[in-house]
């Protein structure tokens, strides 16, 4: 899941390319490169690591009004300069950047090597560059249509590919000309005045133009400074919809915070206000959603709900399962998106399938939704990025309106997803057995959420002290029950992904069936135990850990004085109704992982081996 950019127009391309790559760096930061088409030739600069080292290597950029850029998340071949993009095809007549995975690259590569093509990298992407060069070699020039030969060569080449691609390509013999194409990986075109921008998502384009085209699968865009056209890979021109660009997709400043993750943790109260704005209907004591596109009959006939997603989004799906089953009494299945597609479960009619995703680009979730849709089931998205692939592919959905989430470790998206799932539970519940009074109480509780999070955030200093105490741990256990079991999983994931400490989340009662063997003086256990149905049970689980010398950190209600007699460290949070507790109890867990990662000198916003949106399967 790399980030690609391209530019053709009247200005020097370098400034947009570098700035655009900075805005896409959350998609991958193993290596980066640019190609700038000057008067005479194409200057390629590549470097390992972050965009800053590329900018340093580039120094004063060469002039040129046509260019490509790429930031890499390695799928094939290590993070080296040879494997960095742009890649060259033939003997330099083709220059290409690619985001995606080509599954049949080895077979194609063998064929090209037989034809005498020389490979300089271990990547799958270089195959595409040589394929296009081969396409050019096979396609004689036509005087009347100067572009045709190049378009034909690209169409021929991508016709051989099995896998996913978002790519942009320029040609040594064709200044001022760029072709972009997509299948499975996101790609957008920014429509300027005498200039055009290509990017993996809208963020590089914001502030450059307010008109955008979201390319669909199998579409190619042919761009020059004078204009652009969009073609289908196998057939001719297609009409495209130039849409206004959402302002919020722009440059995101740190606003004085040291890291995006900390900023996004503190943005949660506002993110929840945005998620609820205009969606709580006091008159009917229910929630309203403008984009679900469900008729009252369809709503009433829903007999089962599948919630699917990956990583943190899968954790919020687990919270949603508890909420919807409890409040709406509709059976819910939670599926790892990467498994759902291949597990091929029997899905009854009248089943709604929700794909939960912050980025809207996660390939596993997109594939799972497409598979269930292909089988005739209604697919809906709970998503944070307007116009994203999953939003486009679904029959309807709910936007989170949480604003851009840049930190790779998802925080405000989790709490916003849980908030939307609570409103969906109310929405479905009020079409069934949830009374008006209960609906009113739920709305009241939801409206108190932002203030409850603001109060929970006051534990920051307390959490920092606990982080200092346990920053050298090599294993940590997270334990909770009912609604707080998914929160335990989420807390463990946050610590793993940004501090690289091994951590596991479990239902607290599961400990005695094995994991308790891990308990010793160096393995702290974090118990998520606000007051609730299973409080006493969790307390006994905590005693079992204490009895084996395990240090215990408790996330507990501020009114809970008993807990201090047992736990080694207590972090207090405000009381909340049980079904909303994950939205509150996760806050100290987010802060704990953040402070431990900072104390360990980790790159909090861009942790190793990860990327913000996983656009490859
Ligand atoms: C969470 O912190 C991670 N960034 C990751 O697990 C993420 O939740 C997962 O890749 C799903 O992403 P999505 O919500 O954008 O689909």
Automatic annotation (TrEMBL):
Xref: NCBIfam families: glmS, PRK00331.1
SUPFAM superfamilies on file: N-terminal nucleophile aminohydrolases (Ntn hydrolases) (SSF56235), SIS domain (SSF53697)
GO molecular function, one term: glutamine-fructose-6-phosphate transaminase (isomerizing) activity
Major site of localization recorded for this protein: cytoplasm
Name the UniProt record assigns to this protein: Glutamine--fructose-6-phosphate aminotransferase [isomerizing]
Subunit structure: Homodimer.
Record has Transferase as a keyword: yes
């Amino acid at each position: 899941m790399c980030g690609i950019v391209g530019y053709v127009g009247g200005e020097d391309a370098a400034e947009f390319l570098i700035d655009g790559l900075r805005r896409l760096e959350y998609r991958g930061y193993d290596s980066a490169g640019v190609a700038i088409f000057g008067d005479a030739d194409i200057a390629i600069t590549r470097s390992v690591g972050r965009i800053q080292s590329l900018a340093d290597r580039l120094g004063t950029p060469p002039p040129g009004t046509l260019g490509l850029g790429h930031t890499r998340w390695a799928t094939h071949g290590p993070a080296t300069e040879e494997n960095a993009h742009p890649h060259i095809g033939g003997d330099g007549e083709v220059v290409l950047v690619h985001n995606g995975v080509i599954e049949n690259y080895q077979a194609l590569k063998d064929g090209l090597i037989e034809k005498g093509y020389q490979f300089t990298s271990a990547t799958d992407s270089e195959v595409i560059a040589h394929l296009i060069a081969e396409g050019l070699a096979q396609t004689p020039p036509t005087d009347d249509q100067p572009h045709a030969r190049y378009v034909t060569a690209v169409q021929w080449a991508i016709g051989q590919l099995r896998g996913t691609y978002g790519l942009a390509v320029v040609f040594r013999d064709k200044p001022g000309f760029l072709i972009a194409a997509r299948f499975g990986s996101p790609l957008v075109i920014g429509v300027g005045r005498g200039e055009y921008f290509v990017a993996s998502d809208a963020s590089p384009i914001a502030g450059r133009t307010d008109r955008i085209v979201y390319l669909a699968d199998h579409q190619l865009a042919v761009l020059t400074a004078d204009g652009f056209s969009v073609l289908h890979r196998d057939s001719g021109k297609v009409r495209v919809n130039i849409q206004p660009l959402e302002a919020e997709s722009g440059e995101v400043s740190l606003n004085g915070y040291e890291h995006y993750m900390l900023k996004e943790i503190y943005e949660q109260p506002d993110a929840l206000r945005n998620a609820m704005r205009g969606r709580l209907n006091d008159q009917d004591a229910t929630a309203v959603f403008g984009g679900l596109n469900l008729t009252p009959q369809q709503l009433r006939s829903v007999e089962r709900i599948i919630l699917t997603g990956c990583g943190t989004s899968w954790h919020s799906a687990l919270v949603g399962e508890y909420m919807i089953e409890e409040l709406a009494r509709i059976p819910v299945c939670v599926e790892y998106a990467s498994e759902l597609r291949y597990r091929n479960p029997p899905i009854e009619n009248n089943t709604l399938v929700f794909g939960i995703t912050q980025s809207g680009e996660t390939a596993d979730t997109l594939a799972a939704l497409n598979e269930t849709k292909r089988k005739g089931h209604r697919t809906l998205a709970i998503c944070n990025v307007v116009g994203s692939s999953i939003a486009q592919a679904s029959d309807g959905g709910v936007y989170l309106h949480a604003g851009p989430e840049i930190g790779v470790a998802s925080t405000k998206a989790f709490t916003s997803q849980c908030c939307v799932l609570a409103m969906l539970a109310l929405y479905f519940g009020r079409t069934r057995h949830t009374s008006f009074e209960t609906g009113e109480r739920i709305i009241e509780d939801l409206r108190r959420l932002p203030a409850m999070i603001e109060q929970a955030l006051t534990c920051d200093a307390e959490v920092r002290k606990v982080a200092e105490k346990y920053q050298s741990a090599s294993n940590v256990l997270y334990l909770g029950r009912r609604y707080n079991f998914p929160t335990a999983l989420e807390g463990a994931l946050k610590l793993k992904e940004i501090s690289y400490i091994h951590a596991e989340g479990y239902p607290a009662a599961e400990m005695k069936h094995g994991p308790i063997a891990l308990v010793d003086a160096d393995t702290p256990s974090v118990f998520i135990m606000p007051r609730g149905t299973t409080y006493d049970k969790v307390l006994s689980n905590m005693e079992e850990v204490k009895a084996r010398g395990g240090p215990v950190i408790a996330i507990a209600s501020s009114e809970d004085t008993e807990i201090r007699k047992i736990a080694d460290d207590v972090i207090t949070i405000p009381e909340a109704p049980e079904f909303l507790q994950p939205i509150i109890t996760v806050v100290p867990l987010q802060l704990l992982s953040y402070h431990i990662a900072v104390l360990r000198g980790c790159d909090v916003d861009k942790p190793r081996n990860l990327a913000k949106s996983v656009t490859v399967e």
